[in-house]
Write a structure and sequence with these properties.
The chain has 259 residues and is an alpha/beta fold. The protein has seven helices and seven strands; from the N terminus they run βαββαβαβαβαααβ. A seven-stranded parallel sheet has the order 3-2-1-4-5-6-7, with helices on both faces. β4, α3 and β5 form a beta-alpha-beta unit. α2 runs parallel beside α3 and α3 runs parallel beside α4. The chain is globular. It starts with 8 loop residues before the first strand and ends in a 7-residue tail after the last strand.
Length: 259
């Protein structure tokens, strides 16, 4: 079966980031109707049909997006929970405020999003043979630990198991909604560079170039991913080509977790 998303209505959060922009571009090029959301008031050059400023930690904001999707499109076929942040800190210095903030953005937003969009997705599950789809952006950090990234790893571990739980629950309830997660390794984005900057600031590495060399050494494929390579995995999971995949953790990590 070809990877086809033509005419599917898909919400993508965190659309203003490197991976988010790539996801919107891939879905749009495949003919999907893309509703992009992000915290930024305005976001230029995102390939989408509509853009909404959106705080993913705000339940009311999620409800507003769901209402807009229903009124403008009358359906929702897939939800891509891509919004996320990283806070680099030692466990000793990690403030409780930072801990709660990263959990709010990376984990609680997924619960809020699924609750708000579930009525629309359940309708799609009834009317589409292959069902609706939820794709949660996770990370290899949801499977392995990382020094100075304990909070981020903890959130992605939560997303990993939440995804599996939702997949099992929705299947048991007969909703015909698939729920899967994508687990990138290092991806060449602004967030990736910001993390390297923070490592330099903390004295953990001498330079960003040194950090990049370390990434190359730790990924058997020998490089960081391009955002489009992660977006391709999301495209697959949104499409009917992945109709038998649910509760899956799709690693797109250049072989990192195979070592």
């Amino acid at each position: 079966m070809p990877v086809d998303v033509a005419d599917l209505v898909i919400v993508v959060t965190g659309a203003n980031g490197g991976i988010g922009r790539a996801i919107c571009a891939e879905l749009s090029s495949g003919g999907a109707i893309v509703i992009a959301t992000d915290l930024a008031t305005q976001a230029a050059d995102i390939e989408c049909d509509s853009y909404h400023q959106h705080d993913v930690t705000d339940r009311a904001a999620w409800r507003s997006i769901a209402e807009a999707v229903r009124s403008q499109h009358g359906q929702l076929d897939a939800l891509v929970n891509n919004a996320g942040i990283s806070i680099v800190s030692s466990i000793e210095d990690n403030s409780l405020d930072d801990w709660r903030r990263i959990f709010a953005v990376n984990v609680e937003s997924i619960l809020l999003g699924q609750q708000a969009m579930l009525p629309l997705l359940k309708e799609a599950g009834k009317h589409r043979d292959k069902g609706a789809s939820i794709v949660n952006m996770c990370s290899i950090a949801g499977q392995v630990g990382s020094a100075f990234n304990a909070a981020y790893c903890a959130t992605k571990g939560a997303v990993n198991t939440f995804t599996k739980s939702a997949a099992i629950e929705f299947a048991a309830l007969g909703y015909n909604i698939r729920v899967n997660s994508v687990h990138p390794g290092a991806v060449d984005t602004d967030m990736y560079t910001a993390i390297m900057d923070r490592y330099v600031e903390m004295g953990l590495i001498g330079s960003i170039e040194e950090g990049r060399k370390g990434i190359v050494a730790s990924h058997p494929i020998g490089r960081a991913a391009e955002p489009a390579e992660i977006a391709n995995a999301v495209l697959f999971l949104c499409s009917d080509a992945s109709s038998y995949a649910t509760g899956s953790a799709l690693n797109v990590d250049g072989g990192y977790t195979a070592i």
